Automatic annotation (TrEMBL):
The keyword Cell inner membrane does not apply. Gene3D superfamilies: 3.40.190.290, Winged helix-like DNA-binding domain superfamily/Winged helix DNA-binding domain (1.10.10.10). Pfam families: HTH_1 (PF00126), LysR_substrate (PF03466). Belongs to the LysR transcriptional regulatory family. Keywords: DNA-binding, Transcription, Transcription regulation. Residues 1-58 form the HTH lysR-type domain. This is LysR family transcriptional regulator. It comes from Tropicimonas omnivorans. It comes from the Bacteria.
Amino acid sequence: MDWDDAKFFLAVAREGQMLGAAKRLGTSQARLSRRVSALEEAVGARLLERTTRGSELTEDGRIIFEAAERMEAEMLESLARLQGRRGEVRGTIRIGAPDGFGAAFLAPRLHRLTHIYPDLRVELVPMPHAFSLSRREADIAVMVGRPDRGRLRVQRLADYTLRCYASAGYLARCGTPATPADLEGHDLVGYVEDMIPTSELAYAGEILPGWRSRIEVSTAVGQLAAVRSGAGIGIVHDFMAAGSDLVPVLPGHIVTRTYWMAWHENLRVAQRVRIAAEFIEAQVREARTLFRP
């Protein structure tokens, strides 16, 4: 497998369309199509089905996609280790992120980055209601919903899902709701209503219009702790609930949101920013089944 052709194929598979992949790679759709066709010819199989909605992986395409991702991961790790040993990546990188993503997902993985780059110092800060990449309040920001202001480089990280959860103890004590309307008879856990930082997080009404929380907590991590304690039923990120003792409630009622990553375009050539952004993307990609189980 030609690695150059594989890179083009990976971009199309991840973007789901030729145009988006071409923009991301800074090349033409014609050249991109030629490289993917060359890979298909080399492996002797059709890897993508081109439709009016975009490009979808075939069964053979999924096999090659997984192989190409392994090649990419090994190459990036090898390059990272070489650069790290030469001390080429140094300084401080500040990452701003929502508390759920930052504290529950990214924080336990940051040691992987500093292990490869011992001269890199990482700061992880909670994402406030308002922030400014141009004023360097963060070098990289992970956010819910695509930003539409500023001179930013923006990358889609992952869709993620949330649903209602409760502790086994709470359900044994108060019963299990069968429909969203049944939630009205239960203790509910949610955000502090007038402190929700973005409309993207006002998702409780998608499960139950008029949702009223008995316990309001201004952070996702705090809501998780309250629900695990048996305080009531709350809407929890699936990746945060994974591996816990929480029980899904109304499992067919799911909320979907998207994480985006952004950094100021003036930093696009800063090596530490590029390395950190690639690291975050790789960690999310590796754990993609957690975000949408």
